[in-house]
Amino acid sequence: MYLVESKGGAILCMLVSLLFLGTWPAVMTLLERRGRLPQHTYLDYTFTNLLAAVIIAFTFGEIGPSKPNEPNFLSQLSQDNWPSVLFAMAGGVVLSVGNLSTQYAWAFVGLSVVEVITSSLTVVIGTTLNYFLDDKINRAEILFPGVGCFLIAVCLGSAVHSSNTADNKTKLDSFSSHYKDAPLGHSLPTVKETRDLKDSENGTIPANKAKAGTAAFLIELEERRSIKVFGKSTFVGLAITFFAGVCFSLFSPAFNLATNDQWHTLKKGVPHLTVYTAFFYFSASCFVLAIILNLTFLYHPVLNLPKSSLKAYLRDWDGRAWALLAGLLCGFGNGLQFMGGQAAGYAAADAVQALPLVSTFWGVVLFGEYRKSSRRTYALLCSMLLMFIVAVGVLMASSGHRK
């Protein structure tokens, strides 16, 4: 079994994890904006997410001879370690629910703001729990100022969302005199008025495609996407986002308990779960719950999405490769986060919650978020990103070394 033992190796795991965990939400958002049903996308994602855990378990978890205190993956499957297994599976359950929730929240609130809010809740709640579970191996004088930086970034992110929403309202109000007095989402212009877009994945893009950031672009996006958001309350999206954030804040402490047994639930002489065995059980429970929920949502969709079926899902190959890629990115991202956390402390590993840095980059590049926005929005956006850079640096600097 291979273990990350150096601080430098732990930080490298966190950085790669940060890239992966900040990218997979952008891939999922891309597919929703292209009209693919989120139930279909999440089912594809679920299979490769589990596959990543299996690959990690049978590679890193099987390197070298098995030792009594450091058993390999296959050796540990037959041991009497069910209390720790249940903690790992509980972590997978809350992660699965959180990931499923954010897939709907991205449509309502936007990729960047959802990631900021969920990440902040994860840091404030999860990092504090991990700090005490890890017997305070992280330096508090550095760790908690880093948590404070995340809170400041959250405030800035909320301000970015408020400013950008006001910008978009101004654009739509000026698009047509019809919108001047009508609520957002009522009597949308026809497809002919806004020019139907063909995705580059499915065909050529017309020369008269609406430019990102314009009112026509916003309306075309609403017509094309699978989750319709115009005319719906923003509170729905925010409620889903905060619920997801609470779920995310609990999965890392649960995994911490699974691998380090701080509550002494294992029988005497039974070795702790290795990070690879725990991650396997964690991902397996995540997989089972995701399959159950998404098969249910195929026939009983939420948020007024159209009904689907298992047969329709199996026939839907449009964007499947992207969804499978998203599952691999998330799976390997979580695995690397846990590998780094086992070495440097899970509180420091929560620095990957600076993933809004990556998600915001993809949001701007891929989706045209904040295009043609006001100077105030740009100033707030830059301030938010700067604070996140400071936050991730401070949290990584707080990392200790597990004895």
UniProtKB/TrEMBL annotation:
GO terms for molecular function: allantoin:proton symporter activity; ATP binding; uracil:monoatomic cation symporter activity. Keywords: ATP-binding, Membrane, Nucleotide-binding, Transmembrane, Transmembrane helix, Transport. The keyword ATP-binding applies. The keyword Cytoplasm does not apply. It is a multi-pass membrane protein. InterPro entries: UPS_plant, Ureide_permease. This is Ureide permease 1 isoform X2. It comes from Arachis duranensis. The lineage of its organism: Eukaryota, Viridiplantae, Streptophyta, Embryophyta, Tracheophyta.
